[in-house]
């Protein structure tokens, strides 16, 4: 493929999208052709076949790892513009402390102040060692960090383009669908509520055992405490839509601003305080999403049971101890 297909008219078929992104990732197209293509897709609105096809191209070029069959991933697409604290990173530690293997996929910030990789590094996690020993730590500790830069080398040439654009693109949507551990259970937060059913359909096309796609009404790429949330359950080849609020999990509402984060050091300090038992909206947001992840994993029957189990992992110091062990193991 020497040119990218036009995206302003009819949507791309899944195979056509896969071919286009294969060319982008393989470096056979000039940079000046890629940015307009990504912007045009974003402005027109990506379709489920386009997202699935792009994810297939990304999966075909990733460096995979072996993982337990019950491993899950918890991540957001990013790009929501709210610059919140790292909820999915904290959730990963809490859920792993509950005994569920978590293959956490993430990257440095592309359009936010601190991505999962930035915050984990600020906490003292050696990202190079984390990539090298991912299979080992997943087996021994029940958690690993799959640093996108290490497992998706094809993304290297795209990073400057994404940074220059400074906006969300289909690459935000592709990342969670190309977990190097090949997880078949996921909690994915996306930044566009109207896209929840579209994204869920992409996951259905790719195949999953049980996934939840969530988006806060404010355009938050995770479950919001502030108001309502769109939620899609993808299971048994079906997509079931529903609405959920913090009250459904027995949690208090809080404005999005209550979760405002900052640079990696700021977010790392807040995450450590959370794991040490600090109460507040950040804790509640983590409990909310952890409950969803535990339901995806089949470890909780409902929201209340999930919240109770996640709270216990924090209050008994299990999640904090897990982070300490993880950091120590990678020195």
UniProtKB/TrEMBL annotation:
Instruction: Report if keyword rRNA-binding is assigned.
Output: no
Q: Which residues cross the membrane?
A: none
Question: What cofactors does the UniProt entry give for this protein?
Answer: Mg(2+)
Amino-acid positions noted as binding 5-phospho-alpha-D-ribose 1-diphosphate in the UniProt annotation, renumbered to this chain: 76, 79-80, 84, 86-89, 104-112, 116
Gene Ontology BP, a term: L-tryptophan biosynthetic process
What residues bind Mg(2+) 2, as annotated?
A: 221-222
Where is anthranilate 2 bound in this sequence? 162
User: Which Gene3D superfamilies does the protein's record reference?
Assistant: Nucleoside phosphorylase/phosphoribosyltransferase catalytic domain (3.40.1030.10), Transferase, Pyrimidine Nucleoside Phosphorylase, Chain C (1.20.970.10)
Q: Which reaction does it catalyse?
A: N-(5-phospho-beta-D-ribosyl)anthranilate + diphosphate = 5-phospho-alpha-D-ribose 1-diphosphate + anthranilate
> Which SUPFAM superfamilies does its entry note?
Nucleoside phosphorylase/phosphoribosyltransferase catalytic domain, Nucleoside phosphorylase/phosphoribosyltransferase N-terminal domain
Entry superkingdom: Bacteria
One Gene Ontology molecular-function label: magnesium ion binding
What does the UniProt cofactor note say? Binds 2 magnesium ions per monomer.
Keywords in alphabetical order, please. Answer: Amino-acid biosynthesis, Aromatic amino acid biosynthesis, Glycosyltransferase, Magnesium, Metal-binding, Transferase, Tryptophan biosynthesis
Q: Which residues form the Glycosyl transferase family domain?
A: 70-319
* Entry binding sites for Mg(2+) 1: 88, 222
Broad enzyme group: transferase
The GO cellular component terms are:
cytosol
Please give the pathway this protein is involved in. Answer: Amino-acid biosynthesis; L-tryptophan biosynthesis; L-tryptophan from chorismate: step 2/5
Q: Which residues form the Glycosyl transferase family 3 N-terminal domain?
A: 11-61
Job description of the protein: Catalyzes the transfer of the phosphoribosyl group of 5-phosphorylribose-1-pyrophosphate (PRPP) to anthranilate to yield N-(5'-phosphoribosyl)-anthranilate (PRA).
**Matches recorded under NCBIfam families:** trpD
Which PANTHER family does the UniProt record give? ANTHRANILATE PHOSPHORIBOSYLTRANSFERASE
The UniProt family comment states: Belongs to the anthranilate phosphoribosyltransferase family.
Entry protein name? Anthranilate phosphoribosyltransferase
Species classification: Bacteria, Pseudomonadati, Pseudomonadota, Alphaproteobacteria, Sphingomonadales
Name of the encoding gene? trpD
């Amino acid at each position: 493929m020497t040119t990218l297909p036009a995206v302003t008219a009819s949507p791309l078929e899944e195979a056509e999208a896969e071919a286009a992104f294969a060319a982008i990732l393989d470096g056979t197209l000039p940079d000046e052709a890629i940015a307009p293509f990504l912007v045009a897709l974003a402005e027109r609105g990506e379709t489920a076949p386009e997202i699935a096809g792009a994810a297939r191209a990304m999966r075909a070029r990733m460096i995979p790892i072996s993982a337990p069959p019950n491993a899950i991933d918890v991540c957001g697409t990013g790009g929501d513009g709210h610059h919140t604290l790292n909820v999915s990173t904290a959730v990963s530690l809490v859920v792993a402390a509950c005994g569920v293997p978590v293959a956490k996929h993430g990257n440095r910030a592309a359009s936010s102040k601190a991505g999962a990789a930035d915050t984990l590094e600020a906490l003292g996690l050696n990202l190079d060692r984390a990539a090298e020993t991912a299979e080992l730590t997943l087996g021994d500790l029940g958690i690993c960090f799959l640093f996108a830069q290490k497992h998706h080398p094809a993304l290297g040439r795209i990073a400057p383009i994404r940074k220059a654009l400074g906006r969300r693109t289909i690459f935000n949507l592709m990342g969670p669908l190309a977990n190097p551990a090949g997880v078949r259970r996921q909690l994915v937060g996306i930044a566009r509520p109207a896209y929840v059913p579209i994204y869920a359909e992409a996951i259905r096309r790719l195949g999953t055992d049980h996934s939840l796609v969530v988006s806060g009404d404010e355009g938050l790429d995770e479950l919001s405490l502030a108001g309502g949330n769109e939620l899609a359950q993808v299971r048994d080849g079906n997509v079931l839509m529903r609405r959920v609020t913090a009250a459904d999990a027995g949690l208090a509402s809080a404005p999005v601003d209550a979760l405002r984060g900052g640079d990696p050091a700021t977010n790392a300090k807040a995450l450590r305080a959370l794991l040490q038992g600090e109460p507040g909206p950040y804790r509640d947001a983590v409990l909310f999403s952890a409950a969803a992840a535990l339901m995806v994993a089949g470890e909780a029957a409902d929201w209340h049971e999930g919240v109770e189990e996640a709270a216990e992992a924090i209050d008994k110091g299990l999640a904090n101890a897990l982070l300490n062990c993880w950091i120590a193991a990678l020195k």
